Amino acid sequence: xxxxxxxxxxxxxxxxxxxxxxxxxxxxxxxxxxxxxxxxxxxxxxxxxxxxxxxxxxxxxxxxxxxxxxxxxxxxxxxxxxxxxxxxxxxxxxxxxxxxxxxxxxxxxxxxxxxxxxxxxxxxxxxxxxxxxxxxxxxxxxxxxxxxxxxxxxxxxxxxxxxxxxxxxxxxxxxxxxxxxxxxxxxxxxxxxxxxxxxxxxxxxxxxxxxxxxxxxxxxxxxxxxxxxxxxxxxxxxxxxxxxxxxxxxxxxxxxxxxxxxxxxxxxxxxxxxxxx
Length: 277
Ligand SMILES: C[S@@+](CC[C@H](N)C(=O)[O-])C[C@H]1O[C@@H](n2cnc3c(N)ncnc32)[C@H](O)[C@@H]1O
Description:
Elements: E1 9-10, H1 20-24, H2 27-30, H3 38-41, H4 48-70, H5 73-84, E2 92-96, H6 102-111, E3 116-121, H7 124-137, E4 145-149, E5 162-168, H8 177-187, E6 188-199, H9 205-224, H10 229-240, H11 245-255, E7 259-265, E8 270-276
Parallel strand pairs: 1-4, 2-3, 2-5, 3-4, 5-6
Antiparallel strand pairs: 6-8, 7-8
Bound molecules: S-adenosylmethionine.
Keywords: Chloroplast, Methyltransferase, Plastid, S-adenosyl-L-methionine, Transferase
Pfam families: Ubie_methyltran (PF01209)
Function: Involved in the biosynthesis of phylloquinone (vitamin K1). Methyltransferase required for the conversion of 2-phytyl-1,4-beta-naphthoquinol to phylloquinol.
């Protein structure tokens, strides 16, 4: 393993993501990337390897920026997402695209000592921070969390493993949403739910204009203070290329979920898809 911040961190065992050259390199050679490498700064984000590099790059400031840019509100939205997942004491829950672990920690508190939480991400840097937070926060229930380096499009778990699945700001970032939902359906137990929080691709022109204005005039300028302006410009593009709530509902039904409902949050700036198997 390239690093061992915590014994709960499991190695990456999924195959190539999209950039075969990058992912076929040994883990130690691929990561960690240097901070703000100049050769990546102005490259467009095109495939999974670019996205993986981006999330590794922004990992050190990701949590601070989330608090700053949402004025702390992302904590409320994440609590809502966990609540919608239906996770309860004793459950075995998967948090996909866990990043630095916010949702996994909330799920951990909910499922308690008898439950189990798996946080999965393909960014070693994000997982390393999640693992350090687990150690420093040292809430006894957080011992029920295991961090797994893996691909949302090829989950390293058996069919019907989990009682609930959460995902925060991940679906917009995977290169194949359908495949991600199919994988969730596969590893979910019959009758269980997924809860997916993300930016809402609104159909309301005024909300879209507000969202765009906030990204261009608040998010990107603040991120530029951290040398990450180019990385956060990707946000706008990723929302434009994302699906609307209605499209997400339809996609979930198409892949085989039996019910599917998308909820708008914070005046339509955010959204949460809830679907059950
Ligand atoms: C915007 S962050 C969200 C982190 C966290 N869930 C939160 O809400 O704060 C998106 C995360 O998705 C991860 N990610 C994107 N595509 C992925 C994939 N195919 N497999 C695993 N993780 C992926 C990135 O590494 C990143 O940590």
